[in-house]
Amino acid sequence: TWTSANIVEEQVERIRAEVGDARVLCALSGGVDSAVAAALVQRAIGDQLTCVFVDHGLLRTGEAERVERDFVASTGVKLVVADEEKRFLDALAGVSDPETKRKIIGREFIRTFEDAARRINADGPIDYLVQGTLYPDVVESGGGEGASTIKSHHNVGGLPDDLQFTLIEPLRTLFKDEVRQVGRQLGLPEHIVNRHPFPGPGLGIRIVGAVDAERLRILRAADLIVREETTAAGLDSSIWQFPVVLLADVHSVGVQGDGRSYGHPIVLRPVSSEDAMTADWSRLPYEVLEKMSTRITNEVPEVNRVVLDVTSKPPGTIEWE
Ligand code: XMP
Which ranges carry the GMPS ATP-PPase domain (predicted)? Predict the structure, then answer.
């Protein structure tokens, strides 16, 4: 029978048998899949695992701290944080094309991870890389029968040829809700286990226009209000994901206090979905939307308008870029 306790026990044994006393690396994204995969491998082999968390400066308020503090506290994992905000913001300066932004962020991410791996590598070779691949990812990439836990790979996800790893993918047979149960079984806190999906390129693809520190500050402030009000209204579990988008290249005229304002719109994009392949816009209660709008325009002076995205996917995508 399927229980999260059985899964943990079985995977711990497999990982121990496979890895022996070799060293293992894991890139933490801050998302639930990589967190659960890392926690499982940590349970199996303890200090032989090192996690790398790339803080690209495109995270939401509190996210880096959540990984650094709460994840380490609940797992005891060995964590290296690569604080690379400047590298990413320099590389992104002046770039507003969405695909170019994505490519730059992907490239810098790999470089940062590679640098961190080389530094860690100084104490001896690293043989294995943990990935939080789920069953739907396996099916989507044509893998089918996902029973094997561990498969051989190199040049993973754009990593260069001189860094060679064998992949450990302990979640390969699981669906998202099962991964969450395994995470709970491993003692991860609810706010990590229940986290909404968040894209790797982070807020970089939620600023329509070029990304800079000031625009990130504005978006973070609005996003935090939205998250606070979503949680306060008890809506976290009925929403799949709630992107908040800053239209940084758009201004509109408003009136704030006694004067004219000329600020940016913020877009609210709450969606419901099963698997992110299709999505519908969430019918949030008007009072919740009103509270968000009032707070954002009061508390974030650069924003004078809040709009709601009522587009399904397709034809829209969940993210704006
Ligand atoms: P779209 O915008 O394509 O998003 O409807 C579907 C889901 O994927 C997430 N997303 C990403 N996740 N790296 C990620 O890890 C990415 O580059 C990326 N782009 C989109 C998005 O948040 C949604 O859950």
Answer: 2-195
Domain 4-193 indexed as CATH 3.40.50.620? yes
Q: Which residues line ligand 1 (CB under 6 A)?
A: 197, 199-201, 241, 276, 313, 317-319
Ligand 1, closest atom to CA 279? 5
Q: Is 252 annotated as a binding residue?
A: no
For the segment 125-169, what is each residue's pLDDT rounded down to a tens digit?
888 999 998 888 777 666 555 444 566 666 666 677 776 789 999
The response to whether 31 counts as a known ligand-binding position is: yes
Whether residue 9 has pLDDT greater than 70: yes
* Amino acid making up residue 39: A
Check the annotation: does 30 bind a ligand.
yes
Q: For 83-130, how does the pLDDT look when each residue is reduced to its tens digit (9 = 90+)?
A: 999 999 999 999 999 999 999 999 999 899 888 888 888 777 888 999
Query: Which numbered atom of ligand 1 lies nearest the CA of 197?
Result: 24
CATH class (in words) of the domain with range 206-308: alpha beta
> What is the model's pTM?
0.90
For the chain, the domains span 4-193, 206-308
Task: Check for a shared fold between 4-193 and 206-308.
Answer: no
Closest CA to 282 of 318, 321, 253: 318
Runs of H (alpha helix) within 20-93: 32-45, 63-65, 72-75, 85-92
Distance 188 CA to ligand 1 centre (A): 24
